[in-house]
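Redoxin domain-containing protein (Flavobacterium azooxidireducens), 233 aa
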Amino acid sequence: MKRIILILVFVATNLDLLGQTDQESPKLFTEAVRTNFLKYKFQSSEAYRLGDFERGQFLFDSLVQNQLIGSKFNDYSLKRVSNRKLKMSKVKKPIFLITYAAWCIPGKGEIPALNKLAKENKDIEFIVIVWGKKQEVKKFAKKFSSNIEICYAHKNYKNDNEIVESMRETLGFPTCYMIDEHLQVVNIKRGSASTPLKTPTKKAVEMNYSLFNDRLSELIKFKQDKKELLVTN
């Protein structure tokens, strides 16, 4: 009887340790996407086929909230347009990352709004990943300020397959990734402000600034909450 009790205690203790290990080692972002994307793709495709855009958005939000938030973003070595690589773990501050495509023109007012936010928030690293080849992205990059790191990735380039498959071919673009200084995913949001062509430029910039600033505020608040929690403990 004593032996059985000791065995049960041993098993329970080791299960507890395994649980602690899981908590200390969050799932990688790519693994979280790979595990859950097929189910999401099937359900969302059906929703959009039926014209149920509200459900399509709900499914995306559910994927993010239940599976991707809290995962650890992969420590990619991003290709900068300036020829130097950007290792994400070397950043050491929260990251506001947004993806675009070289062949897709951003909405009216998006780039000026991002440039303004990057100028105002020097304690946040602003990164833009453009899906495309280097020469295509060079033209695109000229529109952004020097406060924003412009990177690129293409499936034909060495070592780019994983980032293209896990980001471009799953969550689409434009997509904002809010990531803390330890590469923990804080949130992911798709799209930008809806600005019809007739929207005055100033108004379009204001609309995008407001939308991006709300997302950025979430990242800043997450950082502040973590800091307060550390002080309390």
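Residues 27-71 form one domain. The beta strands are 77-80, 85-87, 95-101, 125-131, 148-153, 175-179, 185-190. ok done for today
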